[in-house]
Input
Amino acid sequence: MKLTESLQLALKNIVSSKVRTLLPVLGIIGGVAAVIVIVGLGNGLETYVTDSFASMGTNTLTVSIMSRGSTRTLDAEDMYQIVDDNSQYLDLCSPTVPMMGYVKIGSETVSTTSSTGVSEDYLEIAGMTVASGRGLQYSDILTRAKVCVIGAYLNQAYFGGNAVGQTLRVGGQSLEVVGVLAQKGDTLEEGGSDDCLYLPYTTAERLSGSASTYTVTMRDEDYIDESIAALEASLYEVFASDDYYTVTSMAEMLETMTSMINILVGVLAGIAAISLVVGGIGIMNIMLVSVTERTREIGIRKSLGAKERYIMQQFVIEAATTSALGGIIGILIGDGLSAAATAVISQVSEGSLTVAPSLGAVLLAFGISVGIGILFGYLPAKKAARLNPIDALHYD
Amino acid sequence: MNPLIEFQQVCKYYRMGDSTVVAADHISFEIFQGEFVAIVGSSGSGKSTCMNIIGCLDVPSEGTYLLNGQDVGQMNKNQLAEVRNRFLGFIFQQYNLLPKLNLVENVEIPLMYAGVPKKERRERARRALEDVGLGDKWRHRPMELSGGQQQRVSIARALVGHPAVILADEPTGALDSRTGREVLGMLQDLHSQGHTVVLITHDNSIAVQAQRIIRLEDGLVVYDGPSDAPDAVVTPRAPGAERRARP
Output
């Protein structure tokens, strides 16, 4: 007796008792659908995070100096020297000086804008381009020019798109807008990635104190560890201790984020998978009922020469087919829910998060549902196969 | 010629709580190729035990059962299943057809377990149905047929694998007397075509349709001889009376 024939027989039996089969399979359907949606959500989240990090540049390192308590200090000039000394690994460098004060435009105060003092290389490091006017220049840094470039949001919301040449105030200092950045985010929003302002770090240092964080780019992303090591070695020379600085890479942060997302998805999927076990027990129950109901049929088949393994095969395949059908329905529902979730998320929030289960997840879900059928069908099948043909024939 | 079925001092014991029931007590007989034998006895006589052992559904507790020269008592479950499939054709009182399958699917089951390819077994099952006069109804379900027709389907199923022995267990028990006679006629036809038929019944009037009768009582053979002998259908009151009746 071939497997295909067992399969046909199984389908026949399932079709002949649809409702009774469907009910216990609901657990499988729900479990598979939930796993698919959760894994899809995780994939979407991971893509989203990776994309956001990629726009900031995964080839950047962040150096934080905490010189409080140390007798030695490190200023922007020293940092530039260190980057120059390690030019086989390191490329561009920019101090980043966060400004505490609010931005004032005319009589209005904008509290959401993040204002940062940076070097002339920062726009390139952060992958930003100037839409109108000019970017910051080396001469601005040298002369501590009272200029700034602003994000597209400020330009649109407060200057009607004509900010170049206008003035605004940051922390009491009046600055001339010399350039407007190209839009970065999908939409312009308060506090978003386009609600920003950059001024020369030298100007910023006079207002907020000297730079303590630096953004450095690597020449080659493949040498992250070497780049960090070189940078740390130079910093150690300055401070003679490793207590006063930290070097972090965007790539490492991305990795940390991704692994956190994966753990989260794993836990959620595990919880959803409990439903698969419940479904499996439901299938075992229905198969046990089926074996009892079909005791006579088993007796007849045995008297006609069915070996134990044929009976076994018939019931295991029936359980696996039942469970696999549930898996297929679950996959379809899960795909539908994923598409719906994508639509809802893009409606509700600004970010575009695509909930898309990977093919691997779909195949795994299908495989698991078949596996559950086999696992939970085994016991009833064994019971069926072991029946004594004489007793089975006279069973009513 | 070697006997097809040979019982040598076959005993069967069942445990019922604390006591042991002797269902078959040193039963010996031989059945040859082409015979039509009725094993007759009242309920509890051991005829069902005999039928189970002949049908390889059960094995003797003691003694030897040779089927076609093979010792069935030494076989494992798989080998017994194979012997049932290849050597035996069952006809049951309750027909025992599978209600969800149509007639041709029912008839082809023994061939399926014998590993006959689908196309060939469909063909053979259709031919077997034609032989019992139901060739045009092969698509029907068993429940759409009368009792007599269902029993003919089960005869077709018993014959389809060309077994050495046809084993009929009260084949007329669920039928009215007219269709019962029809089915008995079919068994006699099978016998005249050269098949070996073993009929198990409690009914003397049916047993006498066979060529030879083996009468059982309390697990013992009390008569083994031609069905037309005067004492073939006599129910002896005591073993002593039986002994006097036989020369």
